[in-house]
Amino acid sequence: MERLGRILMVEDDSKDVELTLTALEDYNLANEVVVTRDGEEALDYLYCRGKFSTRSCDNPAVILLDLKLPKVDGLEVLKQVKSDENLKFIPVVVLTSSKEEKDLVTSYQLGVNAYVVKPVDFHQFVNAIKELGAFWAVINVPPPGSVNK
Amino acid sequence: MRLPSTESLPIRLAPEIWALYLCDNSANDKGGGKLMAQWNSRSHKFLPIIQRYGFAVVSIILALLPGLLLQHYKFHDVELPLLLFAIALTAWHAGVGPAVLSVALSSLCFDYFFAPPLFNFSITPADIPTILVLICFAVLIIRFSAIRHRIESQLLQARDNLQAEVVERTQQASLLNLTHDTIFVRDMSDVITYWNRGAEELYGWAPYEAIGKRSRDLLRTVFTTPSDDISAELLETGRWEGELRHGKADGTEVVVASRWSLRRNENNQPVAILETNNDITDRKRREEEIRSLNSELEKRSTDLEASNRELEAFAYSVSHDLRAPLRHMVGYAELLQKNSSATLDDKGSRYMRMILEAAKRMGNLIDDLLAFSRIGRVETQKTQVNLEHLVKEALSEVRQETNGRNIVWRIDTLPVCYGDRSMLKLVLVNLLSNAVKFTRPQPKAEIEVGCVDGNKDEVVVFVRDNGAGFDMKYVDKLFGVFQRLHHVDAFEGTGIGLATVQRIIHRHGGKVRAEGAVDQGATFYFSVPKI
After folding, report:
1. Known InterPro entries for this protein (chain A) (predicted)?
2. Distance from the B246 Cα atom to the nearest Cα atom in chain A, whole angstroms
3. Which of A108, B30, B213, B445 is most exposed, with minimal Cβ within 10 Å?
């Protein structure tokens, strides 16, 4: 891998975090994954504030965003990211358990780049994560200002 | 319900009704009738001419005889008043001609019998004043008589007119009793003075029971507006209309649409109130029923909306929260299987497989259940749907389940129908995949999709297979949620497919049914609207 983008994962469920990281590890994609556990933390990371105030202010190559989150929910994060001049180019992939059409429609209206329903089947889940990671962190050329490994 | 035109009638006709009411009362006035009869009996009729002149002669003779008699007994100066009386009588009763005759006769008689020289017709200047007195008297009496005749004939005329009017109005007055409307009149102290048949029928009191009573006491009137306001409006405009509650003779209550109009006398003083009432108890009751039904409906619809929202929240929660732990179960189990396959014995591997299978099945159940609930929640988007194209699309979706199978497909020509394309496709996918699934034991499966000649409004499509079939005694269970007629081991499935089919078809206003026999195959029919 010549270029590997940084992945910002926003996921409140520790088991989902672990399983996702496990899946990404298979592709050696796990090293550059930043995990935030709620919407507020994710926004703190993106705006380099709070505990992330010291980080170098580069944008991640992709955001893997769960919808159901404590404090600030995923759709709200998506809305803020897509309405911010500096953040709106970051590809956002919604990764959720919800198959609800309402969520799907709202996400696309807010400008999401991809919408993935987490499959129950682990093989499918692993494959989905791998493909996502590979595409967005490796194949896709991220917008300028993104962190490369 | 009364027509508006007839409802407005009492108001428009109020003056006429007043007239009717008044003459109805005068018709009952027996005293007035007697007076008329007396007038009639005293009516003056001119006597025939001979009788009239005869009357003059006879009256003079009758005056003359007592005059002569009295003169004989030396009573003097009685004759002139007697003659004057005779002349007056004649002038009064017999008219001008006989009066002239009686004056002439009186003059002659006076001259002959009483004026000196007696028994001689020679007229002396001394007689002239007496004759003049007689003539003047006669003229005076004739004059009075003429005036009397004129007045009498005027009175007769007036009486005839009045009589004719009374007859006419008595006929009209009986009309008041014919109307179904309740009409009664009360004076300004609220005492009932008139009570028509409609009032008797509505309230149950006969006129003799009601007339003379205070209407508020009799009818136990309950006002919906303050009675002071009513009085004010009545005095100002002469009218009032509104709703009242009245008690009937049998103790029950009646709601009436009431219209009042005020009668004033010639001095513009209010004298009576005419009240016209229509029974609207039934209408009020129905209105009340409709109102309560409406509020009930509103409440139900609110409840329904609330439970719909709950259902949506529930479905969301199921799809999100229930799937997550399931995914974790599967994920960790797979990781365990992958990482520890070396240390797991056959039994352990089997248990692991069972856990994974169960979890997968649960995932399918949740997905199917959500899809099923979504059918009820989403709006149908109906268009013209080419069923033949749809069957081909559905077939391509189930094709992957048919790998390595010997299946003979027979797809007949299918018409166009009207419905929600994606939902109808789900129906076909479910039915076709069922057919594929239940023909699995057959070495040569035959699946047919066709169309039955339905009526002109609907299309009846069937899917027939030669698979496992079912016992017709369980046919009622086929379309129920989670109802299965086979073991999961024999034919996998969640028991939601046919329930989904039925729900979709019902949402289209169609019907589903099935025919089959054990190991003889099954046929599923559904109908959808043509247009």
Report:
1. CheY-like_superfamily, Sig_transdc_resp-reg_receiver, TCS_response_regulator
2. 60
3. B30
Chain A interface includes B355 (CB < 8 A): no
From the CA of A13, how many Å to the nearest CA of chain B? 9
Q: Are B182 and B198 in contact (CB under 8 A)?
A: yes
Beta bridge mates, B458 = B529
Of A16, A22, A99, nearest to B335 by CB-CB distance is A22
Quick one: average pLDDT of B266-283?
Answer: 89
| Whether pLDDT at B292 is above 90 | yes
pLDDT at B135: 82
Residues with Cβ within 8 Å of B275's Cβ and at least 6 positions away in sequence, in order, are B182, B183, B184, B185, B186, B215, B258, B259, B260
Which contacts qualify for B482-487: CB closer than 8 Å, 24 or more apart? B486/B438
B315 touches chain A (CB under 8 A): yes
Residue B500 has pLDDT above 80, yes or no: yes
Chain-chain contact of B334 with A122 (C-beta, under 8 angstroms): yes
> Smallest CA–CA separation between B315 and chain A, in Å?
9
Whether residue A146 is contained in a domain is answered as no
> pLDDT tens across B362-378, in order?
888 888 777 777 777 77
Give the percent of chain B with pLDDT over 70.
Answer: 90
Euclidean distance between CA atoms B54 and B59, whole angstroms: 8
**For chain A, what is the domain count?**
1
Q: Note whether residue A1 is domain-resident.
A: no
Strand-pairing partners, residue B461, are: B451, B526
**Quick one: pLDDT at residue B399?**
84
Where in the sequence is the domain holding A53, given as residue range(s)?
A: 7-139
Query: Can you read off the two tokens belonging to residue B227?
Result: 């009675």
The CATH number assigned to the domain holding A113 equals 3.40.50.2300
